[in-house]
Design goal:
Blueprint: H1 2-24, H2 29-42, H3 44-82, E1 94-98, E2 102-103, E3 106-107, H4 109-124, E4 129-133, H5 144-154, E5 162-165, H6 171-184, E6 190-196, H7 197-209, E7 214-220, H8 227-244
Parallel strand pairs: 1-4, 1-6, 4-5, 6-7
Antiparallel strand pairs: 2-3
Helix pairs in contact: 1-2, 2-8, 3-8, 6-7, 7-8
Length: 246
Amino acid sequence: MKRKIIMVILGIICLAYACLTMITVSLQFGNAFFLTLGTMLISEDLIHEKLGNSGKRWMNGIWMISGVLVLILISFMVNAANTHISASQDQGTTVIVLGAKINAGQPSLILERRLQAALDYANENPECTVIVTGGQGNGEDYAESTIMKNWLVENGLETNRILEENQARNTGENLKYSLKLLRQNNLSENVVIVTDSFHQLRASILAKQLGIEQISAVNSKTPVSLIPMYTVREWFGLVKALVLQK
């Protein structure tokens, strides 16, 4: 009985988190994962009853795998909470700011924090050039890069220090098209990637696959409430980066 109560409580927490992030952000793979997990936790007794003894063994295996994934999630969250800015202060750098969702022509909270991190770095390194990258996503009225450039200019960064890449639809394309733009303009290939800490590993893997050797990171401050959702999505993004290279 006690186990059932714990499962139901955990299930309710997962469902509440999934619903909250769907309302405040959007329906994504990360919150869909928590929605599914919460439903399974609450319905465990019913699932056991329907599946019988063989089904119970499968369910126990699923819970073991889920436990391992939760431990990995916690480690990602701890790492994200304790990761500090680690970027070259060399003036000969090119900053690449990876795009994220926009809402009604304005940066989402995730994107605004990336832009703020990029602006802080650019102000400390006045010789660097900033590439903002992101195409027009589903349900968006503008290319992400346009909104990103506008935000940086409105917050004091000189227009002539910003290059805009407006075709990319995913992280791999962000870096691929930014590298092309960088080389067309004879910019330094000492690259500083600005994104959330949970996203940096995948970004660096993709950058190295493209032949970028000098990579530094500036991490934006991810809202704590969004770290679980985006970290889950990033697990599968890493697999995609390693297998499909995008």
